[in-house]
Amino acid sequence: MKLLFKNIKALLQVRETNIPYVAGNDMKVLPQIENAYLSVEDGRIKGYGSMDNCPIGEFDQIIDVTGKMILPTWCDSHTHIVYAGNREGEFVDRINGLSYEEIANRGGGILNSATKLQETSEEELYEQATKRVASVMRMGTGALEIKSGYGLTLEAELKMLRVIKRIRENYPIPVKSTFLGAHAIPATYKKDKQGYLTLLADEIMPQIASEKLASFVDIFCEEGYFSVDDTHFILNAGKKYGLVPKIHVNQFNAIGGVQAGIEHNALSVDHLEVMRPEDIDALKGTNTMPVALPGCSYFLSIPYTPARKMLDAGLPLALATDYNPGSCPSGNMNFVVATACIKMNMTPEEAINAATINGAYAMDLSDEVGSITVGKSANFIVTSPIPSYAEIPYSFGENKIDVVYVNGLPIH
Ligand code: NIG
Ligand code: FE
């Protein structure tokens, strides 16, 4: 199948030579070709350039996109999209004055979702999750990371991970799986945290390895959840099974989780709403991608990740949704990009870099997606007619997507 898109108002995020990610001042630049063409063959990007050099060969389909722009699909490197039911009751409790922490301390929060998930069949869980996956794809997401962590027992964690595996097998976008057994301490282990950590390391991880159910390992390193020592324990255990760390750190308190992640060469450290100067310094010169989740800050009314300070210090940054029932019940990357510009003072160029190539890096997919580069998957967004790409974050809450293509095929 050969496709030609012609009269593209601007082809965005064009990278002739593939790069793993962009950092610091380089994030201010979004390479583009105005009045461009893009050709696709067998689901991959075949060529692109100025309309002056537009090929006239044989194509199965020629699509005229006059007035519209094309950019790579969003790479959402942090989601908990597999979950059972919702937590809108807790949402109303928060409106009425309870904090996220108070709700968790009453047995709500992650433990509430775990109870629901344990009671839900694998089939039903798959049905619920795939509705969300289809929805985020229509909103422009073309690569996805999904975590476990609402099971908190051997059976329920494996059930979640098998659902993620089925999603990977049945959906056309790349899907990466993360083992987040250390998301909360289940009630049955309340007085025996080490017992729970041992269960994760000695019983669940070997099973994950034998069924190839995850690429990454995660832990919620936070006061009241898991300590820095627990983080070392879990990341060391993960290493034995080839699980690369991507961890939840510095959401409410900075307790040294960033440094622990770096020590274990984490692929990413995520959340970072609370960043001390030493946390920013620690990330300099490492291969660890910091990931901000502005939808979570918005929904919980907590601070936003200090993107300006981090970018101005030369760091890279990725943006992701954190799609989950408790702290961000939305998987809309367009909203994330807009919120990064509006609330975190990121420029549209920085936000688009953060939500495409840097998101791809944060799930080890930057050879496959995240830029318009020959040979990469033909996963891209065709916008509606827009005057400039700043319109995408500017018109927050509006849909500026005309069609999403995945492997060269339109998603409906
Ligand atoms: O990334 N912070 C930890 N975990 C999730 C939210 C969990 C929940 O409330 O269900 C997060 O925000
Ligand atoms: Fe999360």
Number of strands: 16
- What about the largest sheet? 8 strands, mixed
The CATH superfamily of the largest domain turns out to be Metal-dependent hydrolases
Count of discrete structural domains: 2
- β-strand percent reads 15-25%
Low-confidence stretches: none
Can you walk through the features of this model?
By secondary structure, the chain is α/β, with parallel strands linked by helices. It has 2 domains: 2-73 and 371-411, Urease, subunit C, domain 1, CATH 2.30.40.10; 75-361, Metal-dependent hydrolases (TIM Barrel). It has 15 helices and 16 strands. The chain has helices spanning 88-95, 100-105, 110-118, 122-138, 154-170, 193-211, 228-240, 257-263, 277-283, 294-300, 307-312, 333-344, 348-355, 357-361, 391-394, and strands at residues 2-12, 32-41, 44-50, 61-64, 69-72, 74-76, 141-147, 175-182, 216-221, 244-249, 268-271, 289-292, 318-319, 380-383, 401-406, 409-411. The strands form 2 sheets. Strands 1, 2, 3, 4, 5, 14, 15 and 16 form an 8-stranded mixed sheet that branches. An 8-stranded parallel sheet has the order 6-7-8-9-10-11-12-13. Strand 2 (32-41) and strand 3 form a beta hairpin. Helix 4 (122-138) packs across helix 5 and helix 5 (154-170) runs parallel beside helix 6. The longest helix has 19 residues, at 193-211. The radius of gyration is 21 Å and the shape is globular. It starts with a strand and ends with a strand. The mean pLDDT is 98.
